[in-house]
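We emphasize that the prediction below concerns an isolated chain of 350 residues; any contacts that depend on oligomerization or on bound cofactors are therefore not represented. The input was used exactly as deposited, without trimming of termini.
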Amino acid sequence: MLQELELTCMFWLGRFSPTLRVAKFHGFHFPNSIAQLSLKFPCLKQLTLKKVVISEDVLQSMLSGCSALESLELKESRGISRLCISSQTLRSLGFFVDWWNGSNHIFLQELVIEDAPCLERLLPLNSTGSKVVMRIICAPKLEIFGMLLSEVIPEFQLGSSIIQEGVAVSLTTKMHTMRVLALSSTGPNLDAVVNFLKCFPCLERLYAIFRLPSYDPGEYMNARKYDPLDPIECLELHLKKVVLKNYVGSKTSYIDFARFFVLNTKGLEEMKITLRYHRQHGWFSHQLSQLRVTSRASRDARIEMRCGTNDDFTHNRDAHDFSMGDPFDLPSSGCSACEEEGLGDAVYQI
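Result of the prediction step, given as a token string:
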């Protein structure tokens, strides 16, 4: 009995569809006529569509026949401009938009989670600036979200809360199940991050990944001050871990970004800061002195800083892998320059 199949053609699909548990379709065109076949995949739990051309009607027809589907990955596929997810069994959804192929192809521009009562993970897999409107209407068990490109999402909607390109229009709906959030931006855009924190009051872990832009965006004006009269619940009660990747401490905006969480996260247990480039011991000492503040909210928080490599987490995520409670909690790659200097995995902490 065939249970796992990877196809580059459609010939055997119908014959084995009743027994498949894992299916991977790579590099071919789904004809629109398939939407009329009412294919059934009653045992299918994992579905991957990579570099395929498929219309929304065909995909919805396939998904409607997957009554046991738990995880779905869409990678570099075309033909769908709007995807609406309504599934009683789906636990994990990952998607990678093939945005660089140009305007001659139809690619995903809007994702709607309409009714997904079992969805736990929503993983936008892109590490670059693809623009997808995202709307979460009903996902009462969603716990892990990322990597979200905070400042280039044209619109993010959570119930009646709306954030447009990082700017809050309305923040009335909150999701109390969310515990892990990964955000990416071209710089330390604190205002955009805080807007998302307000949507997820019970957040426990925050990953902020700073991407290297093709131009120098200058300094972000991170002048935001924490207002105790307008508290952010996750900073007051729940946030325990903050990870900053590809940190550029020579810019004031990066230091201000890190200090905001040191000063205001009352339950903070650890902050991990990884640099994009190799630095000398003296540079670390100066940087850590900027974070060694007497008024820090959590006296026992462990703050560490280390050299690393440009990391965007692309290789860390798999929508089908439920073995890790946090798919972003993986060791940082070591710094080759530190190893050459005999420092090994040099870690500086306060």
